[in-house]
Amino acid sequence: MSGGVDSATAAARAVDAGHEVTGVHLALSSNPQSYRTGARGCCTIEDARDARRAADVIGIPFYVWDMAERFARDVVDDFVAEYAAGRTPNPCLRCNEKIKFAAVLDRALALGFDAVCTGHYARISDSGSLQRAVDPGKDQSYVLAVLNKDQIAHALFPLGDTPKTAVREEAKSRGLLVADKPDSHDVCFIADGDTRGFLSRKLGATPGEILDTDGTVLGTHEGAFGFTIGQRKGLRLDRPAPDGHPRYVLSIEPVSNTVTVGPADALGVREITAIRPVWTGCEPPVSPVECSVQLRAHGEVHDCVAALDGGDLRIDLRGPARGVAPGQAAVLYSGDRVLGSATIATTR
Hints:
Blueprint: H1 5-16, E1 23-27, H2 45-58, E2 62-66, H3 68-84, H4 91-110, E3 116-117, E4 122-124, E5 130-132, H5 141-144, H6 149-153, E6 155-156, H7 164-173, H8 195-203, E7 208-211, E8 217-221, E9 248-253, E10 258-262, E11 269-278, E12 289-294, E13 301-309, E14 312-321, E15 329-334, E16 337-347
Parallel strand pairs: 1-2, 3-6, 7-10
Antiparallel strand pairs: 4-5, 7-8, 9-10, 11-14, 11-16, 12-13, 12-15, 13-14, 15-16
Helix pairs in contact: 1-2, 1-7, 3-4
């Protein structure tokens, strides 16, 4: 129970379904003031208090589990290391993989519980496969696609069949004070929302050059880790493009500490190689599969052909995609059903 409306309503629905429910809030920082302040529906002190009040209203036991050390190692340190390597991670995806459905699920099963129930917007089919939520604007199957079949078998997502507006109305009718609480969108461990500043404090300033596609030096930066593929704003270049069009980040090279920028049409990607595939909704394919792929949370869906190439996943897009960054997840779908996911390593 994060302290937001979704997890509170999910807990209440689990009780209504006849389950024996215990509310758990995760303490993710040894120094909570270093994370966001105020009640934002995730992991502040105020959120813990909101979660406890919701558990009292529902009438279930409530505990706080200290996951700060594991969260720092598996999510925060991973986030910093990925940016330092020129990649763009998704910390919410990593938290689901390493914390909520690894550390928490392992402890829950050891204590005799059967499943972890969360307020994520996704569905599990009768056959046990992960599916998109009915509310496309809130669907979170993308950030859950890193889960394996065993983890899905021990998961409950009670809100996947309900639009967010209806969840808020239900929470209000249940007397849950979090019914109108704003959603959480920012990275929880970056209190001021300044990702570049956070990384600079962690990694230190490392000045480098911003290059045009022909190698011309256009400007300088204080660390290649402060950029991501497809970025347009915050480049602070000394000269405009000859055609007057905006420039975008095309590549990040951590070894030389350079960032290459260019026109929007140079962002197009048609081939993706992804590593560490996880097959949630099917067996590893023995031949190419016609499916669709989503390349970022709430991003566009692209038709593609996916095939295993040794231990890696090769994805050939039917049309070009822009802003595809190594480190992000490529999630394969057949209709609303998640087939599997992998981490983007290279693009062409």
